[in-house]
Design a protein that fits this description.
This protein is of the alpha/beta class. Helix content is about 40%, strand content about 10%. The chain has helices at about 15-25, 30-40, 55-65, 90-110, 115-125, 140-145, 160-175, 205-210, 220-230, 235-250, 260-275, 280-285, 295-310, 365-370, 395-410, and strands spanning about 45-50, 70-75, 85-90, 135, 150-155, 175-180, 185, 190-195, 210-215. The protein has a 5-stranded parallel beta sheet with strand order 2-5-8-1-9, with helices on both faces. It has a two-stranded antiparallel ribbon with strand order 3-4. A hairpin with a 3-residue loop joins strand 6 and strand 7 (about 185). The longest helix has 19 residues, at about 90-110. It starts with 13 loop residues before the first helix and ends with a helix.
Length: about 400
């Protein structure tokens, strides 16, 4: 296909992927760019797995923008039935057509020589009820039968039940969708398919076998800083570099939800709007809610922010703590309160009824280890075996709920 503004030429090389993605504000390393290049050349779907907020969904959006294809998104959720992914019949149109047919039935059978001929004429009209005229395509069918090339994003496929996962197999293997009442639709131009998973459950081997696979982790410090630059946050270079180190330090904590890359960008923009040119624990404490969305995480982070901003900083004297409303009180500030908990309580220990004391280790060695490409961090929120957030393995119960939902829709 020749290059046009609407349909740019296919990627010429891995380097071409990197450059064109960078032009759209997506910084891709060579491993990711290679996977995208193979996706477009081999016509195979790609499955992106990893913690939330590392750019999996954004990759599909950028791929659509770079290639000039329309983006079709299927957002998966538990209990979703195949009609929401494949197609539905437009019952309103069918009902209207039934009314029209009833009004015209006399004209259809007026010159019929006998009853059998009249019935045959009416039966011939029945096929119209289940035709393209009344078919309402959903993302999977739209990607296959659409006239324009598409990027199909199947987002958070790990949240879907196994029943829907089975429906995907035909579409991903042959780029086709079967409609029993009509026939099989096969794509004229294979869509680029991107599946994302936050690893809340294991996907089937059959699904993985049909896909290229890539695990996306949080980027190293250099690439995250490059991402901040590409987003033009307005934060000075030195301050942005310092902020990246702070965020990486927060990710080392036992947080319920680690700060994502997009939240790092939001934090940088927040600080730029406030005119911050040099990071200080106080301003970070006032804005930490931009990246920390749970109260326990916020309390835990506020204790270590001074150490993250300045590893050589001396901790405050005992008696300094956070109140139950998430405010950071300082004895030397107007309105601050000095609470005396006695000499036996260390300043970094929080009240036991609120949360556990965070690890006070400096963590430089851990941050250095995070720079290794392809590191699979089993400890991120939502990972298999990470505790109460893990979904139970799907089984017959989930499949039954899915099929029960289908039955209810059809009986309604």
């Amino acid at each position: 296909m020749p290059a046009t503004p609407d349909h740019p030429a296919a990627f010429a090389s891995v380097e071409d992927v990197t450059e064109r993605f960078a032009d759209h504000g997506y910084i891709a390393d060579r491993r990711l760019a290679t996977t995208v290049f193979l996706l477009t050349r081999l016509d195979k779907p790609v499955l992106l797995e990893g913690p939330a907020g590392v750019g999996k969904t954004e990759l599909a959006k950028t791929l659509a923008a770079v290639t000039g294809r329309r983006l079709l998104r299927l957002q998966c959720y538990e209990g979703q039935d195949e009609s929401r992914a494949l197609y539905e019949w437009d019952y309103g149109k069918q009902l209207l057509y039934t009314q029209m047919l009833r009004d015209k039935i006399g004209d259809l059978t007026a010159d019929a020589p006998d009853l059998a001929s009249a019935v045959r004429r009416i039966e011939e009209e029945d096929s119209v009820f289940f035709s393209d005229r009344f078919l309402a395509p959903r993302p999977l069918l739209d990607a296959v039968r659409g006239e324009e090339p598409a990027v199909l994003l199947i987002d958070e496929v790990d949240r879907a039940d196994e029943a829907l996962e089975a429906v995907l197999l035909e579409c991903l293997a042959e780029y086709q969708v079967s409609v029993p009442e009509i026939g099989t639709y096969t794509a004229k131009t294979a869509p680029y398919v991107v599946l994302t998973s936050n690893n809340t459950r294991d996907l089937s081997a059959a699904l993985k076998r049909r896909c290229l696979h890539l695990f996306l982790d949080y980027p190293d410090a250099g690439r995250e800083l490059e991402i901040l630059r590409s987003k033009d946050t307005g934060l000075p270079e030195a301050t942005a570099r310092h902020l990246v180190e702070v965020v990486r330090g927060l990710r080392e904590l036992e947080l319920r939800k680690n700060p994502s890359i997009s939240e790092t960008v939001d934090w940088a923009r927040t600080l730029a709007v406030l005119g911050v040119e040099e990071l200080a624990p106080e301003v970070l404490a006032d804005t930490a809610n931009v990246v920390l969305k749970y109260e326990r995480d916020l309390h835990r982070a506020l204790d270590v922010l001074p150490r993250l901003v300045d590893p050589n900083r001396e901790l405050p004297e005992p008696g300094h703590h956070h109140d139950g409303h998430g405010h950071h009180h300082h004895p030397h500030r107007p309105g601050g309160h000095h609470h005396d908990h006695g000499p036996e309580r260390h300043e970094r220990h929080e009240p036991p009824e609120r949360h556990e004391p965070p690890d006070a280790a400096d963590g430089r060695a851990v941050r250095a280890a995070m720079d290794q490409q392809g590191r699979h961090d089993e400890g991120y929120y939502g990972a298999p075996g990470s505790g109460p957030t893990r979904r139970s393995a799907p089984g017959a119960g989930q499949g039954a709920r899915a099929f029960a939902a289908i039955a209810r829709r059809r009986t309604d």
